[in-house]
Model the fold of this input.
Amino acid sequence: MAFGVYLHIPFCARRCDYCAFATWTDRHHLTDRYLAACRTEIARAALPKATSVFVGGGTPSLVPPASLAALIASVDVEDGAEITVECNPDNVTPYLIDTLLDAGVNRLSFGAQSMVPHVLEGLGRVHDPAAVVAAARLVRAAHVPSWNVDLIFGAFGESDRDWRRSLDEIVALCPTHVSAYALTVERGTPLAADPWRHPVQDVQADRYLIAEEILSSAGLVNYEISNWARPGHECRHNLLYWDQGDYRGIGCAAHSHEGGRRWWNVRTPERYIEAIAWDRSPVAGFEELDPPMRIREALELALRTRAGVPARTLADLDMIVDAGLVTITDGQAVLTPDGRLLANEVAIRLTVPEAVG
Done:
């Protein structure tokens, strides 16, 4: 049975203007204690063997490679497990890649966001697009089995031409996976405080369709609204989330799920380290989903994927089909590219079977 482990690394060199994640730029002095606490939490949890491990953040590639490898090695994994590490292109070196490969890592994910300098500036990003190209060369030279590039569209100052340039330059690097996300405004971020930089939804819709056009033409198949992959290179860890699988989050602010129960750890690294040091639970809160809620959530998640949902679970089906939002194949309703843009509108028409309620 699939089981995932998420390892949260909360350290960053700089917080991007749109970021609301649990990350800090002034806590690097806690790195050794934090990683030791994570290893202790893993040991105490007595977890089943993982079929996927995802190291995210934050910027995991800021951690000394040997220390990061030791953390990954503390997770017991099945043979053939997918092990992903997020990296800032600026931090990628041959030593980092070799160390991670030796630790069993077989998938890397790079936060590029854009290949256009003025667009990166509008996002509050600091890396040079040339670093993405250099990282891609190192990945290919090291024969990393799978690797992803993250992009964001809808930033202030970005034109359709800029977005096409980013997509074309990333496609030319031949990644096995691309994630393209619409810029969102999160409360409390510098972006939220600057309305002039807020994205325009109609513009983002156009950019999404441009992404579908360019990525699909390059042989990358959309398998979830924001994710395209070459066949066989879909992110198994993310598929576990979308399938409502069980997973354990390790580290501050990390979330876990088991059989309809979700819980999350304390948010700051200091509180997390203290809880582990005093042999206390780092859990800050939890929620339980009853059967109807779980089924509805399962349908909402499945709708986002190329698997789709049983057509019988959608009200107003004929109207949705006539509007070009879904196609029906073998009784499954699957979002079209236009439907992906209106996924929330389609999702509100999902119905939970009465027998479950």
